[in-house]
Amino acid sequence: MNKLKLKHLVACMILAQAPHVFAEDLMTIYQQALEADPESKAAAISMAITKEQTGSALSEMLPQISGSANWSGNDNTNPAAKPANSTYMGTRYYVSLNQTLFDFGKFWNWRRANTVEEQYSAENIEAQHALMHKVVEKYFGVLEAEDQLYFYQTEKNAMAKRLEQTQKQFAKQLVKITDVYTIEARLDQLKASEIEAETIVVTAKESLKELTNTPFSDLYKLKDNVDYKPLDGQLEQWLEVAKSENPSLAAQLKAIEAAQTGVIVQKSKFMPVVDLQLNYYDTNTGYQSSKITNSGSVSTQVAAINVSVPIFDGGSSIHRLFESEHRLELAKNENEAKVRALIKETSDSFLSSNASVRRIAASRKAVASAAKSSEATDSGFKLGVGTVTDILNAQQEEFKAKRELSQAKYAYIKHRARFMRSVGMITEQNIQEVNNWLQPKAFVPAAPIIEKKEDRTKIKPTV
User: Fold this and answer.
1) Which entry of 70, 308, 331, 383 is 20 to 30 Å from 421 by CA?
2) Whether 371 contacts 406, CB under 8 Å
3) Quick one: DSSP state of residue 285?
4) Do residues 452 and 167 make contact, with C-beta atoms less than 8 angstroms apart?
5) DSSP letters of 353-409?
6) How would residue 380 be classed by pLDDT, with cut points 50, 70 and 90?
7) Domain 66-98+273-309 listed as CATH 2.50.20
8) 320: Cβ–Cβ under 8 A, 6 or more apart, which residues?
9) Angle formed by the axes of helices 235-245 and 316-382, to 10°?
């Protein structure tokens, strides 16, 4: 069996023993997060609670009907009566209807409940938008961390290969020992950076897993041919859109409206309350359950208008009024803070998105220039022009340019998602659009790294 067949057999055995893993795209992760995210579920439940509170406030203005019935067995002993002992069955029936005719407190409380329901509805939309933004941010946070790790590993492998070549040249007395030490120092720095990058990858994956509560094997990767376009329009126009469409700000405006209605509710507590009362009463027993001896039962029907005027309640009403006025001022201040934060967030994400487009274009040129510089420096060193330090610096600049290009691409996607959320326009269609920028990760077999240490050769597969 030749070496080629042996390598092929070993590769087949490794693949056969490896678990079957499937890459997951952005939409899959979003659907998992949608099913598992407790914050969006809590927002939906809060909206349902306020809807029931609105119904409860309305029911207070509708007719209130109650009834009661009583059946009793009675044994009466009265020496003065004839006969002295009597046994009889007693019955009582009572039905009451109360209808509010004039009560501003109940009416404005119902209006306030309606406004609070609208507030929580907007907060529910904001929770959905926040989830979409977090999915995009954390998904591409993982991809960015993996790319950074890949570049450090690639640079480390290239540095290990160069160290091996330099050691051979030193053995032939073609280079100085200081050149070997310089490359070893740079290699140690890359190993330290690789360890740090590995930690960032693990942290990013755990952060994404927190959203879905489901482990994932691998993620789709960003395509190379994505067209990164700047955002259209003027910033001032988008700021006006954000103020009118952002659900978080809309919820805060509803909170102000609810607080204003709350003040009216407390003021109405000082006004009279008028209601209609209708009662029906039927019984065949009298005082102390004594039997009515006439026609067998007595029926009473009552129709009344009740007027209740608040006079003095110890000052609790006035304190509740002051409290509601303070809550209104608090809501207004919170709204001002949210408006300022929204302006900053919209401006920053808009400008950062467009800046990222220019940064991507500049980084692509930098990568091409750094590659040419590295190649020229390496050729010059072979011709006796330049030093090992020049080669290492050129190679370092090339990989730095590649890392910065990767960071610029992911920064654009994250800033774009932030912008769409701030103007209240992020939707599942946006998630699908970004998802179209992804592709499954191609399987590339890891190449062995040959490291020489203390005159012993160790073959170590890449991570």
Assistant:
1) 331
2) no
3) B
4) yes
5) HHHHHHHHHHHHHHHHHHHHHHHHHHHHHHTT-S-HHHHHHHHHHHHHHHHHHHHHH
6) confident
7) no
8) 266, 269
9) 140
The predicted pLDDT at position 293 comes to 63
Token pair listed for 134: 């977090």
Domain ranges of the chain: 20-61+103-271+321-461, 66-98+273-309
Residues 6+ apart with CB under 8 A from 331: 252, 255, 256, 258, 259
User: What gap in Å lies between CA 23 and CA 217, rounded to an integer?
Assistant: 6
pLDDT value, residue 463? 31
Per the DSSP assignment, residues forming a β-bridge with 308 are 273
CATH of domain 20-61+103-271+321-461: 1.20.1600.10
Mean pLDDT, the chain, rounded, equals 86
d(CA 148, CA 190): 12
- pLDDT value, residue 21: 44
**pLDDT score of 84:** 64
DSSP 8-state assignment for residue 445 = P
Mean of the pLDDT values across residues 149-174?
88
CB–CB of 90/291 below 8 Å?
Answer: yes
Give the tokens for residue 182. Answer: 């310089």
pTM of the predicted model as reported, rounded to 2 decimal places: 0.81
Query: What pLDDT does 287 receive?
Result: 62
- Residues 6+ positions from 445 with CB-CB distance below 8 Å: 11
Backbone φ and ψ of 90, nearest 5°: -115, 145
Tokens of 118: 């609208």
Is 66-98+273-309 the same fold as 20-61+103-271+321-461?
no
Average pLDDT over residues 326-353: 96
What separation in angstroms does the CA of 213 have from each of 40, 133, 432? 14, 17, 21
Question: Measured between alpha carbons, how far is 157 from 451 in angstroms, rounded to an integer?
Answer: 9
Q: Report which of 212, 222, 206 is spatially closest to residue 143, judged by C-alpha positions.
A: 222
pLDDT value at 182 more than 60: yes
How many other β-carbons are positioned within 10 Å of the β-carbon of residue 434? 24
- pLDDT score recorded for residue 294: 56
The answer to whether 307 touches 103, Cβ cutoff 8 Å, is: no
Alpha-carbon distance of 457 to 455, in angstroms, equals: 7
Predicted pLDDT at 286: 65
